[in-house]
Amino acid sequence: MIVARTRAELRAARATMGTVGFVPTMGFLHDGHLSLVGRARDENDAVVVSIFVNPTQFGPNEDLSRYPRDLERDLRLLREAGVALAFVPEPGEIYPDGFATRIDVGAIALPLEGAVRPGHFAGVATVVNKLINLVQPETIYFGQKDAQQCAVLRRMIVDLDLPVRMVVVPTMREADGLAMSSRNTYLDPQARSRATALFRALEAARDRYEDGERDAETLRRCMASVIAESGDPVIDYLSVADPETLHELDVVANGALLSLAVRFGNTRLIDNLSLRRG
Ligand code: AMP
Known about the structure:
Layout: E1 2-4, H1 7-14, E2 20-25, H2 31-43, E3 46-51, H3 71-80, E4 85-87, H4 91-94, H5 113-116, H6 120-135, E5 139-143, H7 147-159, E6 165-169, H8 189-194, H9 197-210, H10 216-228, E7 234-241, E8 256-264, E9 267-275
Parallel strand pairs: 1-4, 2-3, 2-5, 3-4, 5-6
Antiparallel strand pairs: 7-8, 8-9
The structure holds adenosine monophosphate.
């Protein structure tokens, strides 16, 4: 596996490869990331993975400085997974002096994560656009775990005619349902066990939906009651939204995206589940 630290090293290595599947990450890899890598390996001649904790997508009071990192372990996992090229730039390589551009993807980036984390998606869209231009992949892989991120980036790829196919890979979960996340490592044992409430809340609302409930507020209250039983964490949002626009629904008529963001102490967790139409 080639480890590229500069844009020039990345471009030189990429030029020797056939079709490339690209998996952008912030590192501290887990099986969720590796499922994206596996899918990319199945569908391309070579896999490129970036590890970059992108400072511009973190707010001033967020966890940038304490975001977990273990580059040696990450590189070992990527080597074992058959990755051809790891791109591990320093912030100054991505944002040299004078860097000023920000990509605003519009309405889809405003609710939910966008409302709680102003500027977050501009940071994500800008870095992903830049990484696509550098890596020039045929296909780029994202996780359903970050459903709004997928919607934002799909919008950007379509609107800017970026020459890349986008694939969304299902959420990988721990045995008890908790969505895998690098941030799970922040959870102390008590919070770790309470954190299972996120997926249980989504499942409870999905069960109500499958039993015929179509009133979105009832589904939100159903999620809230499961979350409240888990030590009353701070709820950033509980959402039953249109899967295309992410506008909150009154009535679920054509499917929905259930999503939530909850804070256990300093640890903020997100999860989501799709309700199929019908
Ligand atoms: P991150 O390192 O958290 O920025 O994630 C890098 C990519 O992995 C993003 O496309 C995420 O949506 C995806 N990802 C993170 N966690 C999971 C998971 N549990 N299952 C599937 N994909 C995931």
